Every structure is written in structure tokens, then in C-alpha cells.
Amino acid sequence: MNRDDITTGPAGDPAADGRLVGSFADGEDQAVEAALRPKSLDEFVGQERVREQLDLVLTAARARGATADHVLLSGAPGLGKTTLSMIIATEMQAPIRITSGPAIQHAGDLAAILSSLQEGEVLFLDEIHRMSRPAEEMLYMAMEDFRVDVIVGKGPGATAIPLDLPPFTLVGATTRAGLLPPPLRDRFGFTAHMEFYAPAELERVVHRSAQLLDVEIDTEGAAEIAGRSRGTPRIANRLLRRVRDYAQVKADGRITRAVASAALRVYEVDTRGLDRLDRAVLHALLKLFGGGPVGLSTLAVAVGEERETVEEVAEPFLVREGLLARTPRGRIATPAAWAHLGLVPPQQAPPGAGGGGQRGLFGP
Ligand SMILES: Nc1ncnc2c1ncn2[C@@H]1O[C@H](COP(=O)(O)OP(=O)(O)OP(=O)(O)O)[C@@H](O)[C@H]1O
Fold first, then answer.
1. Which reaction does it catalyse (predicted)?
2. 356 belongs to a structural domain
3. Is there a catalytic annotation at residue 234?
4. Is 39 a catalytic residue?
5. 230: CATH
6. Which residues contact 276 (CB under 8 A, 6 or more apart)?
7. Does the beta carbon of 205 lie inside 6 Å of ligand 1?
8. 193, 223, 252 - which closes a domain
């Protein structure tokens, strides 16, 4: 496999912050992910519809002796887009080249990659929505006609030299399918949206990874980790590794429900997968602002974080979990947020109760 470049998240993105429940891969993830990646569609857990459809696309292409159609995978980080692209290459018995949109800033960068592809090779382009405009335009022709025009020279004397490419399969991955220009989206023969995983599916991911890592874990231990993994296999695998450390140091190495919850208490990941930052945002919203509405900037100041960190790191999961709502008037907490932090909304509090619990701003 040829790896041109691997990114951990958008450059400067506050989500690439090394949180235990962060969705982007950190250095340690990258080192172990290769060992934990499913190698075939059969091993790939969940995403039933995507798997079934992709299986048909690949089986049909193989039967025709053709290169598979271009595939677009969209979905949040850590849901298995890179893994699926590698599976596509394995199933097609083709080599794979991995690169990303931000690494292709000039059309020439893309021309160099495309012109060195072998016949049938899979080109995985992560964060395809972040490619430069000229490179994107070059990609249109490459995807459709397996041809690129390489521009030689500058200004009025510049000439376009057509270059034929071998047939290849582009697998584009994006967290933001809506950001792709329609002409690019339309050139993919197969588009799949990857959903967050159900707890039962993540349990299977945890069991599978535990086996590969040679860690003993029981059903309840796996369920405890799965329930705190925010629907994301990458997070499930990361929590499993931290719980394994705890089990080795503080227990007999075996992961049970009690071991998993004690470990994740140490790492401040609660039963719903919220970490310290998520809870700080909720706590400020509930205790300082009575559940809102409150403006994002005010909320950010209250938790001592940048606006972007609150908006891009903490809020998406809180919104997804139905704990926080973004409204034109500001952020508001839902009844589920009060219940999760064990606090009583002001209008329901008995006189004198003050609408708050006993816990501090960063309490569990
Ligand atoms: N369906 C799955 N079954 C088992 N393990 C999975 C599955 N999906 C992902 N994983 C595991 O989760 C980790 C992250 O997956 P992967 O790198 O493919 O995610 P991604 O969507 O490409 O993330 P990013 O967008 O950040 O690159 C890998 O270690 C992989 O083994």
C-alpha cells in the first residue's frame, strides 16, 4: 500500500484535540488502527445497507472484469470510511493509494498522483470537499474520461497536453457531502451515507477488537464501553484501550462492567459518553443561565473555552443526543439535559430549591 498522506482532522480544527472521545484519529489511534481494521465486508460490523449495496457493486464489477465505479462515502469521522476504502481495494484485489483533499492544493499535485496510478488501483481521497478548485476541475475529467489535461507553461503561451490515465476507482470520503459541488457528486456511481452505530453494533466492534488485542472482556463490560462510545467505532476502540490499561493496573486484566465503569470514571467519560468539556457546557447552560436561551459567546466565556471549541467540539454531540438545542435566540437545554446532570429545571423546583443540584461546575 502506498500512503501519500494521512490527516487527523482539518488543520487547525478544534476537533483534532486529542480528547478521549474526540472523533478524529490521534497518533496512537493511527498506530493501532491498522491492526484493528476489518479486512473484508464480512468482517465489517453494521452499516448493513451500505455493505449490501457495496457488495453488489463490487461483485458485479468483478464479474464483468471491470474496474469498480467511483464511490463516495459520507459520514462523521471514525465511522469506517477509510476502512471501507481499503476493503474495496482488497475485494477488487487492487492496490490502494491514500491521500486527502488538503494535501492536493494544486492541479499538478493531483496530476502527479493520477498519472502514477496502476490499472484498477483504488485512489482514496479523504476530505475530498477540501480540495482546491483547480484540482477539483481536473478530477471531473479524470473520473469521467480517465484523462487529464496537463497545462505546460504560463499565460498566453500555456498549452494543454492531454494525458490518458488507466481506469481507476476513486473512493472519495467527506464529512460534509453537502459541501461537494453537484458536478463532482454526480460523477460518483455509488454514494453511501454512513450512520452512527447502534450500541449493539459497537458491542460487536468492542468484542472483535478485544479479541485482536488479546484482552479478556465479558458481555457487560463490552456493553458498558459501547454505550459510552458516541456511536463511533474509533471511540469504542480508544475507550477499550484505556479500559484495558485500567484492568491491567487496577484489576486482574479482565474487563467487566465494574472495571469498565470505574476506568471510564477515571477518564471522566460518563454513562452517555459525555466528557468533561461536554458536561461543563451543559452545567454552565443549566446552572448559570437557567437552561438558556444564551448566546454562544457568553456560553464559551462561562466555560473558559473558545467559541469554536464549544460550537464545533462539544455542541454537535450534545445536539445529537437531544441535550442542547441551537435556536435563533441562543442555546437552550432540553429536559433531557436537566435529567442527565441530575438537576431540576427552575419552574419545577419546589420553592427555595434554587434549581440546582449540589455539584460543582465540572462535577460528574
Ligand atoms: N464497521 C466497523 N467494524 C469494525 N471496526 C470498525 C468499523 N468501522 C470502523 N472501525 C474501526 O474504527 C477505526 C476508525 O475507522 P476509519 O479510520 O475507517 O474511520 P474514518 O471514517 O475513515 O475516519 P476519518 O474520517 O477520521 O478518516 C478503525 O480502527 C476501524 O478498525
1. ATP + H2O = ADP + phosphate + H(+)
2. no
3. yes
4. no
5. 1.10.8.60
6. 268, 362
7. yes
8. 193
Rounded to the nearest angstrom, the distance between the alpha carbon of 233 and the centre of ligand 1 is 6
Q: Within this chain, do residues 56 and 109 fall inside the same structural domain, yes or no? A: yes
Q: Name the closest-CA residue to atom 31, ligand 1.
A: 37
- Annotated binding site: which residue ranges? 36-37, 78, 81-83, 144-146, 187, 197, 234, 307, 326, 331
Map 156-189 to HEC letters: HHCEEEEEECCCCEEEEEECCHHHCCHHHHCCCC
Domain with 298 in it: 276-345
Whether residues 207 and 246 fall in one domain: yes
Report the DSSP pairing between strands 2-3 and 169-174: unpaired
Supply the pTM of this predicted model. Answer: 0.86
Report the atom number in ligand 1 closest to the C-alpha of 197. Answer: 1
Containing 220, the helix (H) or strand (E) segment is helix 219-227
- Of 80, 74, 87, nearest to 129 by C-alpha is 74
Query: Ligand 1 center to residue 137 CA distance, Å?
Result: 29
In a domain, 235, yes or no: yes
Which of 218, 243, 266 is the last residue before a domain boundary? 266
The answer, yes or no, to whether any atom of ligand 1 lies below 6 A from the CB of 80, is yes
Residue among 19, 81, 208, 276 flagged as catalytic = 81
Domain count, the chain: 3
Among the options 7, 67, 82, 174, which is catalytic? Answer: 82
Task: Note whether 32 and 178 are same-domain residues.
Answer: yes
| Residue 37 beta carbon below 6 angstroms from any ligand 1 atom | yes
Strands (E), the chain: 2-3, 71-74, 96-100, 122-126, 147-152, 159-164, 169-174, 190-193, 324-327, 330-333
Per-residue confidence in pLDDT tens, the chain, 364 aa: 444 443 334 434 444 466 888 877 777 777 777 889 999 999 999 999 999 999 999 999 999 999 999 999 999 999 999 999 999 999 999 999 999 999 998 888 899 999 999 999 999 999 999 999 889 989 999 999 999 988 888 888 888 888 999 999 999 999 888 888 999 999 999 999 999 999 999 999 999 999 999 999 999 999 999 999 999 999 999 999 999 999 999 999 999 999 999 999 999 999 999 999 999 999 999 999 999 899 999 999 999 999 999 998 899 999 999 999 999 999 999 999 999 999 988 875 555 554 444 443 444 3
3-state SS assignment for residue 192: strand
Is 82 assigned a catalytic role?
yes
Q: In this structure, are 85 and 135 located in the same domain? A: yes
Told to judge if 175 belongs to the known catalytic residues of this protein, a careful annotator would answer: yes
